[in-house]
Predict the 3D structure of the following.
Amino acid sequence: MTRRRADGLIILSLGSVIFILFGWLLAGNTTKSMNDFKAPYYGAKCLLQKCDPYDSTNLKRIYHAEEGERQTDSDIYRTIATTNVYFPPTLVLMLPFALLHYGPAHLIWMALISVSFIAASVVMWDASSS
């Protein structure tokens, strides 16, 4: 391994650690994290219960059954979480996550995103160092 390639690997490793730590700190800092995950998650849960995932009334019913009525949630937050704007294949992708409770499902989702981002970084590093 050349010196430049080794330096690139060190920078890539350091960047990956910073990326994971920064994401962990930001996700743990707010109760409103992963709001964009909730819409397809609750849409897939709705699909599992044989209801229309594009009907916001059904999504609100499932959202309130899972999350409860929290006063800390603003109207816009509830609207984003209960409006499914994603294409139907997204629901198929989310079905395995909908079988889990929200907590483990969103942690697995964040882990998959992190691993995918770091894997793409490694591929780019490898391609550029050749």
Helices lie at 3-29, 35-48, 56-67, 75-81, 88-98, 102-128. DSSP finds six helices and no strands in the chain. The chain has a mean pLDDT of 85. The CA atoms of residues 27 and 40 lie 19 Å apart.
